[in-house]
Amino acid sequence: MKRPVAPLAAAAAALLALSPPALAEPPAEPGFLDLITPNRLLHGLAQSAVMGLRTQLDIKYGTLRVDIATGRMVMTDLRLWPLPEWEGGRDCMISIDRLTLRTNGLEEVERLRLGLTAEGIEAPQSCFPPDAAEGFALVGLDRLVAPRLNAELEYHLPGAEAKMHLHASVEGVATADATVDFSYLWFDGRDDIEDPAPVIYLRHALVKLENDGLWD
User: Fold this and answer.
1) Does residue 2 belong to any structural domain of this protein?
2) Residue 66 backbone zone (phi > 0: left; psi -120 to 50: alpha; other: beta)
3) DSSP 46-104
4) What is the largest CA-CA distance in the chain?
5) Which residue of 23, 81, 198, 216 shows the fewest CB atoms closer than 10 Å?
6) Banded model confidence at residue 20, pLDDT cuts 50, 70, 90
7) DSSP single-letter state for residue 130
8) 90 located within any domain
9) Count of C-beta atoms within a 10 Å radius of residue 136
10) Ramachandran bin of 87, using left for φ above 0, alpha for ψ from -120 to 50, beta for the remaining angles
């Protein structure tokens, strides 16, 4: 008596589909070139920079991500202990929820763009010199809380033109916004190359200050 071929073939296919993963080919091991990608190299440089800064102040962070294609580095849960020398300074701990450093992507070659954004900044009164205690008492604060700090620099390499923008807000104090536009910005080292003098031609400057409780 002949057995039906179709049911046997279907059963064999089902058994193959249910076979344990151990029977499958193991994934290929990453090669040496896979371990030296630009992002990995930049990540290592960023970690080296952090270790260098740790010789000057104590630093801890949660995560560090870099993307060389977009020119972005992000650190989260950053904690800084600068250990100032004045009385009570050892109680100073500056916390930053998220720190983003930006530069121009790989496709842009004639403009240099640098940016820094810090979000969720907190610093107790002990992080500031004793002379600043009167200022804290004046506005009724025991710590500085800044939801956001943003600084940007755009430099046009062919024309030596530059634009700077700074935005900062401090809870219960004020919000500041400043823009500076230079028609020429660089340095003159003819007299002293080790300490060159800045060459600045100012085109425009604008500063805005919004009261959030600093004054009545």
Assistant:
1) no
2) beta
3) HHHHHHHHTTTSEEE-SEEEEETTTTEEEEEEEEEE---SSTTGGG--EEEEEEEEEE-
4) 106
5) 216
6) low
7) G
8) yes
9) 16
10) beta
Q: Does residue 109 belong to any structural domain of this protein?
A: yes
Over residues 180-206, mean pLDDT: 94
Residue 200 has pLDDT above 60, yes or no: yes
Cα–Cα distance between 157 and 104 in angstroms, integer?
Answer: 13
pLDDT in tens, 98-146: 999 998 876 778 899 999 999 999 999 889 888 877 777 777 788 899 9
Phi, psi of 49 (to 5 degrees): -65, -40
Burial of 96 (0-12, 13-18, 19+ CB in 10 A): buried
Look up the domain containing 112 and give its range. 33-211
Number of domains in the chain: 1
Cα distance between residue 80 and residue 122, in whole Å: 11
Nearest CA among 30, 122, 46, 23 for reference residue 77: 122
Tokens read off for 215: 């004054």
Closest CA to 204 of 149, 175, 169, 162: 162
